[in-house]
Predict the structure of Transposase.
Amino acid sequence: MQKNWARVREVIGYLRYDTPAELATLNEIWDLDRVFTNYLLPQQELVSKLRYGAKVINRYDVPATPHQRAIKHPTMRKRPAITMNAAFKRIKPAHLQCEILRLAGELEKLSLAKKIPPAKPPVNTRWNHKG
């Protein structure tokens, strides 16, 4: 996926995750999101860029999922293609998305339940005053 950072923030947000429980939940999310992204989210690949002075024209191919691109690749062997197609048929998109959202909510609860770090000590205002 070319816009990985956007997908990461879309799924898990901007909170800090640094405990073992959060790591375990993140790993579950990424296992499910890998399936969702590779089998269900179509992407366009950049085919060419043409520059006319300051203007750049990008040309993209037809949207396809990574699964579809892999199956169509000329070096793809029959056995892996059959295995991937069987895995694709077992996917329940609505259930998969609901599970990702449930885990993301659980991750948010874990992060927000952590002890709030102590406040920073006050800055020495004796040297920072105007006058």
Q: What stands out?
A: The CA atoms of residues 17 and 111 lie 6 Å apart. The radius of gyration is 23 Å.
